[in-house]
Write a structure and sequence with these properties.
CATH architecture: Up-down Bundle
Strand content: under 5%
Largest sheet: none
CATH class: Mainly Alpha
Low-confidence stretches: 401-406
Distance between the termini: 53 Å
Number of domains: 1
Number of strands: 0
Order of helices and strands: HHHHHHHHHHHHHHHHH
Number of helices: 17
Mean pLDDT: 82
Length: 406
C-alpha cells in the first residue's frame, strides 16, 4: 500500500476519532496516540524514514505559529513570573533530570544523547492542554498560565534540542561556549521574528481579501523559520516572535468575520498536522522495534516507565515550591494572589507531551557527522513515544477528577 493511501485512510480514521472523542470522554490526542501505536502492529505497512530536516521544517513552524498567534498578551504579561518559571526553568530542569535518569538506566548512551531525550520530552503539548482546558472549564488564571507556558516551552525545549543534537553530532561540548551561543542564538531568533512579524503586518495591511490574508498567514511561519535556520539563529523563536507580533496586530488587520474564517482554517490545519505526525510515528515504530532487538521487551518497558515517571514527578516537584515560596515575599503577595492547592495540582498534572515532542524525535538524523549511525536514535524515538503515551493516558484521562474551583 502506498504511503499516500495510508495517510488518506488514517486521516479519515482521525476524523472519526475526533467525532467520537467526546462520546468516549477521551482527549483527542489520547485517541491519536492509540491509533499511531496500532499502526506499528499492522503487517505489510512500509517502514517510513523521513528526511529529518524536512520533518522539522514541515511540521513545527505552523504548530508553533498557531500557539503564538492566539496568545493573549494581556494575560501573558499578567502571569509572566509563573509562565517563565514553567516554560524556561521547568524545561531546563526536565531536560537535565530526564537526561540523568536515561544515562543511569542505559550507561552506554552518550551524555549528549541522554540530554537530547530530555529536551525532546521537556515541553508539554499545547493541543492536549487546550483540550483539557476546554473540557474542564478551568478558571481564567489557570488557562492563562497554561497557554503562556505552551507558547514559550516549545521554543525553549527545541532550542535545547538543537544544542544537544549539535553536541552529539560534533562530539564536543563546552558549557561556557554553549551559554554564549545560546544567548546569541535566542536573541537573534527573537529579533528576526519581530522583524518578520512587523514586515508581515505591513504586507497584510495591503491585502484586502480574507483568502489572501489566510494564505499569507501560512507563509509567514515558514519564512521566519527558514530565514532563522539560514542565518544560524533560532528559527523556532523567530516563528514564535512573528506569531506574537501578528497576533497582537490582527484586530486591526482583519474583520471579526475574517478572523473567524482564519481560525477555522488554522484549526483544520493543526488537526491534520497532528494526525499526520502520529500516523508517521506509527509507521516508523514497527521498524524501530525490530531494530531494538538487542534489548528485551522487559528492559524497554522498564526504561519507558522510569523515564515517564521522571518526567511527571519532576514537573510536580517543580510546580509546588515555585507556586508558594515566592509568596513569602510581600512584593509578590501584593501583585499575585496565592494560588489554591487544586489549581497548583492541575497545573502540575497538566504535563501531557504530544506532537512537538514527536516531531522533534522523528527529526533526529539517522547518521552522525562521520557517517556512523546516530547513537541510540531508535531508543530515543521509542522512549519519546513512550513518554507521550504515558502522559496522555495517565494524566490526560485523570485530570477530570480534580476540582479547579477549590
Amino acid at each position: 500500500m502506498a504511503l499516500l493511501e495510508i495517510v488518506l485512510i488514517m486521516l479519515a480514521v482521525a476524523v472519526a476519532l475526533g467525532r467520537f472523542s467526546d462520546a468516549l470522554r477521551l482527549l483527542y490526542p489520547v485517541l491519536l496516540v492509540f491509533a499511531g501505536m496500532g499502526l506499528a502492529f499492522v503487517p505489510g505497512l512500509p517502514d517510513v524514514r523521513l528526511d529529518p530536516e524536512l520533518t522539522l521544517a514541515l511540521f513545527l513552524p505552523p504548530l508553533l505559529f498557531a500557539s503564538a498567534y492566539y496568545t493573549s498578551w494581556r494575560d501573558f504579561r499578567m502571569y509572566i513570573r509563573p509562565i517563565l518559571l514553567l516554560a524556561i526553568g521547568l524545561v531546563f530542569a526536565t531536560t537535565l533530570g530526564v537526561g540523568l535518569v536515561f544515562k543511569w538506566l542505559v550507561p552506554d548512551v552518550p551524555w549528549a544523547a541522554a540530554f537530547l531525550l530530555g529536551a525532546i520530552v521537556s515541553p508539554p503539548d499545547a493541543v492536549a492542554a487546550a483540550a483539557i482546558m476546554e473540557r474542564l472549564k478551568l478558571p481564567r488564571r489557570i488557562v492563562a498560565i497554561l497557554e503562556g507556558e505552551s507558547l514559550v516551552n516549545d521554543a525553549t525545549g527545541l532550542v535545547l534540542y538543537k544544542f544537544a543534537l549539535a553536541a552529539v553530532l560534533t562530539g564536543t561540548f563546552s558549557a561556557w561556549e554553549a551559554a554564549a551561543t545560546f544567548t546569541i542564538y535566542a536573541a537573534g531568533g527573537t529579533g528576526l521574528g519581530i522583524a518578520v512579524g512587523f514586515g508581515a503586518v505591513a504586507v497584510m495591511r495591503r491585502l484586502d481579501e480574507t483568502l489572501l490574508q489566510i494564505v499569507a498567514s501560512f507563509i509567514i511561519p515558514y519564512v521566519a523559520f527558514l530565514l532563522g535556520e539560514q542565518i544560524h539563529v533560532s528559527g523556532v523563536l523567530a516563528v514564535v516572535a512573528a506569531g506574537l507580533v501578528i497576533g497582537w496586530h490582527v484586530p486591526e488587520l482583519a474583520s471579526a468575520e475574517a478572523r473567524m474564517q482564519s481560525n477555522m482554517v488554522w484549526g483544520a490545519v493543526v488537526f491534520v498536522l497532528n494526525a499526520i505526525v502520529f500516523i508517521l510515528i506509527g509507521l516508523e515504530l514497527d521498524g524501530i522495534l525490530d531494530r531494538l532487538n538487542a534489548y528485551s521487551m522487559t528492559e524497554l518497558l522498564t526504561w519507558a516507565g522510569a523515564i515517564s515517571v521522571a518526567a511527571i514527578v519532576i514537573r510536580m516537584i517543580w510546580v509546588f515550591p515555585n507556586a508558594y515560596v515566592p509568596h513569602l515575599f510581600e512584593a509578590v503577595r501584593r501583585i499575585e494572589p496565592r494560588p489554591p492547592i487544586a489549581m497548583t495540582v492541575i497545573i502540575g498534572w497538566c504535563g501531557m507531551r504530544g506532537v512537538v515532542s514527536l516531531a522533534a524525535a522523528q527529526a533526529i538524523p539517522h547518521f552522525a557527522a562521520a557517517g556512523e549511525p546516530f547513537p541510540a536514535r531508535d531508543l530515543i524515538v521509542f522512549l519519546s513515544f513512550a513518554v507521550i503515551f504515558a502522559t496522555l493516558i495517565v494524566q490526560g484521562t485523570t485530570l477530570g477528577a480534580a476540582d479547579p474551583h477549590a
